[in-house]
């Protein structure tokens, strides 16, 4: 299997205090489907999936006009948060394929974890356990397996709820990390702009250019989000969500262009320097203090995001950004002070090295954005989740023929081919397929879902990668 694309560096995936992707409300089919298509109550359906009832991640679309949100089938309507956070009880109804049997209990993980510690034989000194590395890898494997199984067995409604919570609607720590980072980036951009303009240090100009990215990227997201909301459905039938990705690509190349200009200016400064000039540059203390304040602020944000980076996936992206900014600002301070105290050429040389690094980082980000724009496939975990939801959607779904999920900008397009009874009525097949479409589009980050109904799997694929004109 080919390696999965690493898209976490894409700007579209980064959190913004003003730009979120709330799951959209969907309405159910207006036609009342047959009894076997509405839930897992009929378990004696003729199916090629070992007669398993589709119940684990399924949702029941509401038929009332008061709410259009899908409701999880096996979650009581008045369930308290305490009950929801307790350990779920897996039954043949909500775990038809017995995936929970693969969960490793905490006692076994504790035993594996114990093998990674230092051992004392009773006589000699403490020695390292030679099998610790292998035991640690086994522990991580089973932890990832447990997370994957629990994610598959989680109802769609819980996926939507968790996505809303991770966006920061109800978590103070997350909001502090995202909003605090944005406010700090705006203030630090102004501070570093003053430092670069007052000292005329090329190294500080490079750090200033990099510091302008975060607030400018948030501004790009805000403008793109407004453009998406004002879409004309007749002119753009599929929406304009990809305008955000296109704007991010433009911004990446703008940053690369600025870095190239700084490289050219640094080379010109080195070439035009004469031996009669001073061996060092002028030292401007307020500029150095300003950049040091920016460094300390970034270091504080780095430590805060590091403490909660495993709680929220988007905070991990912020943590990586702060880590990179620490290196760039720290190196910029050293080369700027070095050019004023040691040798003049340290400042332009440091600006060249930092600009090359920034070009590399932004080229990598632009590549990730290009992958989102041209339609790179979703990761394996998402494909597994879509497949399992489709398998357990209804007993009327006999087989799954094809599952595709690919990016269309920051969100996903999903295509699923399901196999049903050829003697089933059009109304029944329509309702089952439409309810599956609604369910898949309820998943976070899914833009649209297309469900195709077939009665066999021997035919050739309907779509080809290359279309002959």
From TrEMBL:
Identify the SUPFAM superfamilies for this entry.
Cation efflux protein cytoplasmic domain-like, Cation efflux protein transmembrane domain-like
Protein name per the record: Cation diffusion facilitator 1
GO cellular component terms, alphabetically, are: membrane
Write down the superkingdom of origin: Eukaryota
Positions of region (Disordered): 1-104
Q: Does the keyword Flavoprotein apply?
A: no
Ranges where the Cation efflux protein cytoplasmic domain occurs: 389-454
Comp. bias regions, Low complexity:
34-65
Q: Where is the composition biased (Basic and acidic residues)?
A: 66-84
- Ranges of residues in domain Cation efflux protein transmembrane: 181-374
Kindly list the residue ranges recorded as spanning the membrane.
174-196, 202-224, 245-264, 284-306, 350-367
Q: Which residues form a coiled coil?
A: none
Where does it live in the cell? Membrane
- PANTHER family, per the entry: CATION DIFFUSION FACILITATOR 1 (AFU_ORTHOLOGUE AFUA_1G14440) (PTHR43840:SF12), MITOCHONDRIAL METAL TRANSPORTER 1-RELATED (PTHR43840)
Keyword terms: Membrane, Transmembrane, Transmembrane helix, Transport
Please give, as recorded in its UniProt entry, the membrane topology of this protein: Multi-pass membrane protein
Can you supply a Gene Ontology BP term from the record? inorganic ion homeostasis
Q: Could you cite one Gene Ontology molecular function of this protein?
A: monoatomic cation transmembrane transporter activity
